[in-house]
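As a warm-up, study this chain.
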Amino acid sequence: MALASAAESDKPAKEIFGAAKLPAVLSARAIGFYSKGCLAGGIAIPTDGPTWQAMRLSRNRRWGHPDLIALVERLSREAAAQDGWPGLLVGDISQPRGGPMLSGHASHQVGLDADVWLTPMPRRTLSARERETTSAISVLRKNTLHVDPKIWTPAHARLLMRAASYPQVERIFVHPGIKKKLCDTWTGNRASMGKIRPYYGHHYHFHIRIKCPPGMSGCRSQNPPPAGSGCGKQLAWWFTDEPWAPAKPAKDTKPKPKKRHIRLTDLPSACAVVASAPAPASEREVTLGADPIARIAAANASNASAAGFATSSFAPLPATGPLPQPRPFN
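Now compare it with the structure written out below.
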């Protein structure tokens, strides 16, 4: 069912996109920026595959642009066949129509981001309850910034370096301790090492971010990471006190204005069309392997164009939140 009144609603955008149970029946398109946009023509990764299982199914966040879903499936297959990794436990990708989420991520809005657990897939199929209650396992030694040799394996390294090697991948976000372990021990091809970027958290899962698909107007990729491996000063900064120092209390004692939620009108204008577009008859029609792009989206392309879907305008990107400064380019 389409979100018929979304374009007129004054609800926060996260409530509009969080309420969508199925994707927009439109040509596949990532719209906007990773942290401010939406997704048209998204497809779902199946809950189970020969080399993956999707987790936290109740969140309904296993949707993405077809290019990303295909890449996750490829990574699962190749890592199992060549890297000794038994299979992927797939975390959050995007909501059916992307957009801001009711909880959690600031990014994952355009169907080009995916979280993959650093816990290997078990040899059995997890129950629905287990997928909700099982926790990912941190690979760090407790209360340190370094990986635990009792948990970390060479297969972890092979999995991450394979993910970074794909040309479509723009970045892989991991904890600084994981990046350091790779920098210190990886003896294979290091050409893709610079794509692996240290960041807060990400010690129990890694975050895959792919580039905008070629020729896709209205989708904005992140600037390329700096040249080089990223194993020098950029990484060393994370092992100083500065990144982890508590934020200094603000001197201004005046009450802060109430945070304003992002509205639909704050997103790229094409997102209004995505929010109000019809949905497919069922999830099965838009799951990887069903070829929904040719069969469903193409049939609606003319309607989307008539509704102004071809626009490529962007709303201003959100300001960066408070983070320690100076901080390396991520």
